[in-house]
Design brief:
- The chain is mostly helical and about 270 residues long.
- It has a domain of about 180 residues: Cytochrome p450 (Orthogonal Bundle).
- The chain has a two-stranded antiparallel ribbon. A two-stranded antiparallel ribbon has the order 2-3. A two-stranded antiparallel ribbon has the order 5-6.
- The protein binds protoporphyrin IX containing FE (HEM).
- The site of protoporphyrin IX containing FE (HEM) has 24 residues, from helix 3 and helix 7.
Length: about 270
């Protein structure tokens, strides 16, 4: 994970066949200052590696939670699709510039983060000075494990915490944004928050614009294939969604053409 991707891109650069990416940019910047030292090389390999290791499992977990949420809550999916249709129309796919004009989608994604915090116990931290919490004294040097899952279920902040209700973020007295805690705390706060959250938004908005995502249907009976929502997440450092059956149907021929166009543009 550290050396092979680096060597792969270096070889492609030497052949003049590398596509511009995070690694090529760092190498070009470094080379522009002179030679690339061993220290630079290890630093660049580490930076490139952490984008992958810290960014993929987390982002995909939020996205699969989103898919599960819209399958289990078709009303939320339809409301979000109606909003996208009204703002974006059907001639193009959503872009970042549309984000501010899609408040229901924003609320839906907040509810996804709250419903299944991707790293329920974040990461252990160490307090650097004596601290206290309620009647507890926390001496400097203690390890603390923030329980963001419990925060996401705290009825003091979230009315009906066990329900999936994006509307709670849209009322006059909205629930607090769970992105304030699901990305961690303090100096070790996730540095990829903006990148991860933007990736989630772009994928979610385009999936909603393009597809009706529903429970899968049994081919023989035509009935929905049901599954039990209570056991949909694995227990672990990252709360992955257990695979579940679903169906994606393109919402129009136009959208199929749009997806093929963007696929062709990307592979050029
Ligand atoms: C929606 C997606 C993501 C979620 C939910 C998420 C969540 C988190 C959480 C909870 C932590 C621990 C913070 C703490 O210790 O207080 C963390 C750390 C980290 N994340 Fe993310 N993350 C996401 C995406 C990304 C992306 C895309 C990148 C990189 C491009 C990234 C890079 C990192 C790194 C490097 C750390 C370690 C920071 C440190 O220990 O100083 N994350 N993330």
């Amino acid at each position: 994970m550290i050396d092979a991707p680096y060597e792969h891109v270096r070889a492609a650069m030497a052949r003049g066949a590398a596509r511009s990416c995070f690694l090529t940019t760092l190498l070009d910047e470094c080379a522009a200052d002179g030679t690339i030292s061993d220290y630079d090389r290890e630093d660049i390999k580490g930076a490139v590696n952490i984008v992958y290791t810290a960014g993929t499992d987390t982002t995909t977990t939020v996205l699969t939670s989103f898919m599960l949420a819209i399958v289990l809550h078709p009303d939320a999916r339809e409301k979000s699709q109606n909003e996208i249709d009204a703002v974006v129309g059907s001639e193009r796919l959503p872009e970042f510039e549309d984000r501010a004009a899609l408040p229901y989608l924003e609320a839906l994604l907040k509810e996804v983060y709250r419903w299944n915090p991707p790293i329920p116990l974040v990461l252990p931290h160490q307090v650097t000075e004596d601290d206290s919490y309620d009647s507890y004294t926390i001496p400097a040097g203690s390890m603390i494990i923030p329980n963001v899952w419990a925060i996401s279920r705290d009825p003091e902040y979230y009315a009906d915490p066990d329900l999936f209700k994006p509307e709670h973020f849209l009322s006059d007295n909205p629930d607090p944004d769970p992105r304030a805690f699901v990305f961690g705390f303090g100096r070790r706060l996730c540095p990829g928050q903006a990148f991860g959250d933007s990736s989630v938004w772009l994928a979610a908005s385009r999936i909603l614009a393009a597809f009706d995502v529903t429970k899968a249907r049994d081919a023989a009976t035509g009935m929905d294939i049901d599954f039990t929502p209570e056991s949909r997440f694995i227990s672990g450092m990252i709360s992955h969604v257990i695979p579940f059956p679903c169906e994606l149907r393109p919402r129009s021929d136009k959208v199929v053409a749009l997806i093929r166009e963007s696929e062709a543009a990307y592979s050029m």
